[in-house]
Amino acid sequence: MNLWGAIVLRDLRIAYQGGGAMLPLVFFLLVATLFPFAVGPDGPLLARVGGGALWMAALLAALLPVDRLIAPDAESGVLDQYAVRGLSDEGIATAKIAAHWLGFGPPLMIAAFPAAALLKLDGDVLTRLELGLAIGTPALAALGVMTSALTLGLRGAGALAGLVMLPLAVPLLIFGAGALGQDGMGALKLLAATALALIAMAPFAAGAAMQAGRD
Amino acid sequence: MIPARLKFEHVACLRGERLLFEDMNFALGKGEAALLTGPNGAGKSSLMRIACGLLAASAGKIERDGGVAFAGEAAALDARLPLAGALLFWAKLDGVGRSEVVGALDAMGIANLAEVPVRMLSTGQRKRAALARVIAGRAAIWLLDEPGNGLDTAALDRLGTAMTAHRARGGIVMAATHQPLALPGAVEIPLGTVR
Question: Fewer C-beta neighbours within 10 Å, C or N terminus of chain B?
Answer without folding.
Answer: C
